[in-house]
Prior knowledge:
Elements: E1 11-17, E2 31-32, E3 35-36, H1 37-48, E4 53-57, H2 60-68, E5 72-75, H3 83-94, E6 102-105, H4 115-120, H5 123-128, E7 132-139, H6 142-146, E8 152-158, E9 161-171, E10 182-192, H7 193-201, H8 206-211, H9 215-220, E11 225-229, H10 240-252
Parallel strand pairs: 1-4, 1-6, 4-5, 7-11
Antiparallel strand pairs: 2-3, 6-10, 7-10, 8-9, 8-10, 9-11
Amino acid sequence: MSLKTSSAATTVVMIPARLGASRLPNKPLAELAGVPMIVQVWRRAIEAAVGPVVVACAEAAIADAILAHGGKAVLTDPALPSGTDRIRAALDQIDPERHFQRIINLQGDLPTIEPAVLQAVLRPFDELDSDIGTVAAATTDPVDRADPNVVKAVIAFSGVKSNLGRALYFTRATAPYGSGPVYHHIGIYAYRRPVLERFAAMPPSPLERRERLEQLRALEAGLSIGVALVDTVPLGVDTPEQLERARILLTRQ
Length: 253
């Protein structure tokens, strides 16, 4: 499978998806407002209009769901260990001529993500010349701040641009210490293609293993991660309770 692109179309959105989630098996195919969840995520990505959207699937059932709704999908080795590895493998299949130089990695369990969030993840490329872009939202919620499942981004902000900065660290702890906002990291990334290829070839790093956060591998290797602030955190679906919340939210739209 190869996608035709114009010389200006250098960005592609890739959504890695697999059926084997431990807490909510088969979740890409879970029904949300009449269609599988992976189709809802694909629709949000299409609405962002930042480039073509491709689902990188571990199983044919996911590809079939996307193809049935007019989308593009590519099968990858089910044994690949991470979503990053999956989009790296899929990219070689869809773009052997290397037209796409900016790759957005969108998780397949964010069915309520706003298109503006996907647009914002590219800002660190254009305004900070970062190797990698990501997004975060300020939170004062004490439950979020204390929850180890909520990843916090420690950010050095860039001069007068108070909504754009450079990631110093990511942690499951409450950080930084002291008064002021804590930034809830949203696990969406934009990579320059050579950076994605370099990153995917690296072994897991010590801090990555300790915190169980893949992005720390990039920081330990000296890669820069720029962070754009957004207003809302999309609902991630990992449990039956979150799936039901997503159903309610999408039914209201």
